[in-house]
Each structure stands twice: as structure tokens, then as C-alpha cells.
Amino acid sequence: MSVQTDASTTLDVRALGVTAVNRALRALPDGASATLIEVRGAHNLGVGLFNNITITINGNTGYYVAGLCDGPDFVINGSVGWGVGENLMSGVVRVRGNASESTAATAHGGLVIVEGDASSRAAISLKGGSLAVAGNVGHMSAFMAQAGTVLVGGDAGDSLGDSLYEAVIYVGGTIRSLGADARTEELTDADITKVRDMCQAANFDHINADTVTKVVSARALYHFDALKDQRY
Amino acid sequence: MCGIVGLLVRDRALEADLGRHFAAMLEEMTARGPDSSGMAIYDRDVPQGSLRWSLRGGGVTTDWAAVGAAVEAESGVLTQLEAIDDVAFLVTAASREAVHEGLRLAADEQITVVGVGRAMKLIKDVGLPREICEHYNVPAMTGYMALGHTRMATESAVTTDGAHPFSPSNDLALVHNGSFSNHASIRRQLLDAGVACLTDNDTEVAAQFIGYRMGQGDDLEEAMRHVLKEFDGFFTLVVSAERSFSVVRDAFACKPMVIAETDAYVAVASEYHALAGLPGIDDARVFEPHPEEIHTWIV
Questions:
Q1: Do residues B233 and B255 share a domain?
Q2: Contact (CB, 8 A) for A86 and A104
Q3: Model ipTM value
Q4: A136 touches chain B (CB under 8 A)
Q5: Mind telling me how many Å the CA of A204 is from chain B's nearest CA?
Q6: B2 a catalytic residue
Q7: pTM for this predicted structure
Q8: Helices assigned H by DSSP within chain B
Q9: CATH of the domain at B90
Q10: In chain B, whose CA is at the least distance from the CA of A141?
């Protein structure tokens, strides 16, 4: 059950249930740390937390782990289901295994790191957060991503960056196909620095920042014009 | 939303525990489909030359002993009958015509044939997965393969007939998470080809389509490829046949599927937590099928 020690709290997800675990996490003071065990694929672990705590999850999780958070850092020693770090506002979420669909969907801030592969629609509708995937990403990744950065160490699936806005994607491996209104662009020195910084933050040493492929919006599909109304 | 689970046993020692593991997996999918559920369970208990008929009565008490006797009288062949309330499994070497005639004589069109096969036992009902599993004693069942579904109805009414799996031909069972948008068109095409669907359910159309394709000579994987070509909509499908087991997701892959493979079994589920209680899961190869990728295992 719940074991309080000086530095860390251990929470048994199977014994306590998800609601009680999340309530216990929410009650921890800034600087505290907690370890979740007996996870067994449970959904919605560690969602909606605003305290600056460190959470270690031992096992595979279900959907939406670390979603809606603005503060805590997570290390997940396992694979995760759909929507890890969904709508993340800040904090670092590290997944040691693979991630299923919609990784870091709509994340406004923070950094989601996947050490394995991420599946379809990674970084969908990204709004300013960062996603670093060591391996591959599935199809329709970065779909309608508005702002933020996506770094893929491996290969990207079909329709990468479809209907992209101002988010930027860097791919170390191959791109199966680009989505509508996505195009590649030459790397600038600023890009190379950005990729290096992101590799350092993610602790990736297998990506050559000088040779990644940069994907941005071709801006042929979206015509957002803030001054439009003043013309009439 | 609907839930899917499947378990294919590779290590024969595990066959004795099939029902127990399968029922636990199905219960984990309750939140995805609490209105009805169903299952196809495959075992080696039917003698060579016989078929097992999965039957359901008309909602009133059926005199199953009289049904068995009528089939025996009609065919002149011995039948075995195992009944649990409104559901019965009739094992017989009698011809299809003799069984149907026996059913008609004993119960006057009140009995539905849910499925027929050399290995398959098909059960479906309205209610929570746990209640259905307990009612039909599923945890005690043995066998080499099981496929299950928990339903949250979208395209047709919550009825036992609308519950999955659908079985279009011997030993074939299909479950579906998603919805088809062109099922009415394909239903008409099938009717032109002489295949009539029995319910308003969209999933049944896919089942009948696969049954039709396999009747035309396709193997299971070829039939699944035709599904990808002809059907519009969202789907994760799992189809089991007597000796094979196949999984496919549509091009968008909006409906989930997780697969776990070990030397002892192949297990599939809509969500990982349905697999988390299986023996040796921590050492299993766990992965998700890519869009339009057909995975088939041969028993």
C-alpha cells in the first residue's frame, strides 16, 4: 500500500486504484518523489498534477499517463498506451519503452521523450511542447501540429506533418511520405543547435544533428491573416 | 467503442486454463463494451466426423432433451447435448438437413443456430462480460483458442443477435471494434451473390463477406485483404477459423489493438491491461499492428 519514507512514497496501483493513487500524488509537497508499482496497464495515471514532484512508474501503463500536467517529471520504466503526456504544460516525461498512438497530443509545453518507438499520430496538434522519439514514429505524425518541435531519431511513417502549421519536425532516418502541405527545408545553424540541444535534453547520442531532415509547413493550405479585417 | 480479446495457445499445457485466462481478459474489457458480449471457444472435444452446433432457444424454456431426441430420430445418428439454460451445444454426425429438420420439428423455428463447427463453441448474450462468463461457466472451459468481444452498440440495437462474434460458416468467427459506413451497399451485393445477412448489424456484413470469399477459395488472409479493399469505415477485426487466427486494422488505425506473443501463446486485446494478468507477460513480445497490416497465426 502506501509507504512513506523520508524521500519517496511507493504507491501500489493495483491495491489502491487509480483515483486514490492520483489523489496521493496530488497531495505530495514540491520536491517529493513517488514510485508507482503493480501498474498492469492502468489508464489515467498521474494526470492533472501541478506540484513539482518526481514520479517513477515501474511497468506498462494504459492511456493518458502524465496527461494535463504542469509541474511533475515522470520516468516510466515500461511502455505506454495512447496519449502519453496529452496536453502537457510543463515537465519532462521519459518513456523507457514504446509509446502507442497520439504521443504528446496537443502538448503546450514540456518535453516528452520516448526511448523506443511511438505509434501513429505522435505529436498530433502539438501546441508548443517538444517530443523526442529515439526510434520510429507511425503514420500521420505531427498532424495539424501548430507549434513546438518534434525530433525523430529513426524513420517516420506515411503522411508526416499533414496540414502542419508552425511546428517543426526533424527526422534522423527516412520519411515514408509527407502529408499534404508539408515540405522539407534546408537546415540552418539554428536548427542544428536546436537538434543538438534537444538530443542533450533527451540524452540521445545516436542522432547526427547535421544530417537530419527538416520538415515544415508549405503554407499553401492555411491562410491565417491577423490583419485581414483591417483591409475592409 | 467495443472491446476485443483473443487467446491462441501454443503450449498445450495451457489448454486446461484457457477459459480462466480468457474470462479474466474479457472482464478487463468491460468498460469498452458493457451492453453485451460473446465468444468463440475452440477445443478438440468433438469426435472425428461430427460437428458441434451452438444453439440458442427463443427466450422461453426450451426442452433441449426433446431437441436432441428429434435430431436423433430424424437422422438415425446419436447426438450429445450439453445445455445451459437457453443455450445448448449439440454434437452430432447427422447431416445439416437432418439437424435443421430435427430443430424445426422439436421447437418450431424457435431455435437459432448461432454457429457450427468441428472445434468452435459460440456463445453470446446481453449483459456484463463477468455475468455472461459465470453464467455459461466459461472459466472452466478448456481449448486451444478463444476469441471474445464486449459490445457498446452503435450501428444496431442491443440484442443477443447483434452481439459478436458473427459466424458465417463452419468454425469461422469474427469480432469487430469500429463501424462500417458502406455496409448497406455490400449487404446488397452479397444478396445478389446469394448470401443473405440475418441481422441489421454492420459487423455481420463483414463476417458474411469473409465467409463468402472463403467459399470462393480465398484463404483467411486473402479474404481479409478483400475486406481492406471493399469496406469503408473504422475497424479492428479479429477473425478465427478452425486452424488460424487473423488480425487487421483499417488505414487510419483509429481502433486499438495490442498483441503479446510468447512461446506459450499469442494474445490480443484492445487495451494492454487485458493482457497484464497473463503468465509470462513481462517477457512477451508486445506490439501493435500497423494500419492495413494483416497478422495471421496458424494453429
A1: yes
A2: yes
A3: 0.90
A4: no
A5: 23
A6: yes
A7: 0.93
A8: 18-28, 64-75, 96-107, 129-135, 183-192, 202-215, 220-230
A9: 3.30.70
A10: B252
